Amino acid sequence: MRRVWLMLAGLGGLASVAAGAYAAHGGIGVRAAELLRTGALYGLVHAAALLAAAAAAERRSRLGLALGVAGSAFAAGIILFSFSLFALALTGIRGFARVTPFGGAAFMIGWAALALRALFPR
Fold it and tell me: What whole-number distance in Å separates Cα of residue 17 and Cα of residue 36?
């Protein structure tokens, strides 16, 4: 699973930087640029969080199940939230917006898993 997380962190970071650059320099509409910037911000933050999860898993962190839930949720969030915003901004197809909230929920599940692990260590 660590390799998948690492790959998704890299792709999420790459896509986020590209989306942010296109938002800044692409000469697109205001709404599309706003969607790209939002997707890029969340994508970069969670690519870094996913990278940290992969690194902790590599060290066989004591976070155990919480780390697995968090990493998987961050990966799902990047795909569902950030990539759906990128797709919506670039295509204008409103159907992509239907999955965005599920990505946001996945991000929150990931952070909640880490918080709960801290509250209930064992």
Answer: 10
Instruction: Look up the pTM and report it.
Output: 0.91
Q: Rounded distance, CA 71 to CA 27, Å?
A: 35
Joined tokens for residue 33: 């640029």
How many Cα atoms sit within 13 Å of 110 on the Cβ side? Answer: 24
Instruction: Copy the structure tokens of residue 112.
Output: 């909640």
Most distant CA pair in the chain: distance in Å?
52
How many other CB atoms sit within 10 Å of the CB of residue 58?
12
Is residue 68 packed enough to be buried (19+ CB in 10 Å), middle (13-18) or exposed (0-12)? middle
| pLDDT digits 0-9 by tens, 16-29 | 999 999 999 998 99
- Number of Cβ within a 10 Å radius of residue 62: 11
Does position 95 have pLDDT exceeding 90, yes or no? Answer: yes
Residue 51 contacts residue 70 (beta carbons within 8 Å)? no
The full set of domain ranges for the chain reads 2-119
Neighbours of 114 (CB within 10 A): 19
